[in-house]
UniProtKB/TrEMBL annotation:
Protein name per the record: Phospholipase/carboxylesterase/thioesterase domain-containing protein
GO MF annotation list: hydrolase activity
Phospholipase/carboxylesterase/thioesterase domain: residues covered: 23-245
InterPro entries on file: AB_hydrolase_fold, PLipase/COase/thioEstase
Amino acid sequence: MSFSGTALGSGRILGRAVEFGKTHVVRPKGKHQATIVWLHGLGDNGSSWSQLLETLPLPNIKWICPTAPSQPISLFGGFPSTAWFDVVGINEDGPDDVEGLDMAAAHVANLLSNEPADIKLGVGGFSMGAGTSLYSATCFALGKYGNGSPYPINLSTAIGLSGWLPCAKTLAGKLDEEQIKNRAASLPILVCHGKGDDVVPYKFGEKSSEALISHGFKKTTFKAYSGLGHYTIPQEMDELCSWLTSNLGLQG
């Protein structure tokens, strides 16, 4: 396997401290053109996705697969699990853990901060990892995190598989400034969801893509998969590869 572990990291926002787990890196087999941080789902770790991503025919991409901190999850009655942020319930009206989302998005930004200047940067993920990815996309457009701190990374792409857009209901009126509109309109986003998903319902993915487009993320692509549950399949990975190659201008 051409990935290696890096040291544990920690983050602190407004007094809430967490310790991130092991980060796995899949190094490019060809000329390095892009680096993407890929975020796993609730209860998972970076290793499982790094092994899948290593098999993709994308020799120009470096994948960074961190492991979320273990923290109490309200959905599980406070039982701890590896998670990028807290989840109270899988419903449209539930509260968003902005503090946790900011901490996760800042961790992603930190992982991307030391990449060479000529490398295109992206973030992607599955389930709650997709939520963090799409949230990072909105932070990039707004130029700041939910807590107002500046967002430091120039993203070139964001991907969300089987997830949702956190804080969608708070975006209204925030993306009207010209510079923000330009950033939103320039960012290619891929949202994919299975119609048979019984964990994060299909309508969450569909409504998230609609929300992104309505708020000016004009380069949002939505792909639906009949019969797909809360997992990925080769067809989805094949289309992800084609989409990334096209939108990042990879040599292949």
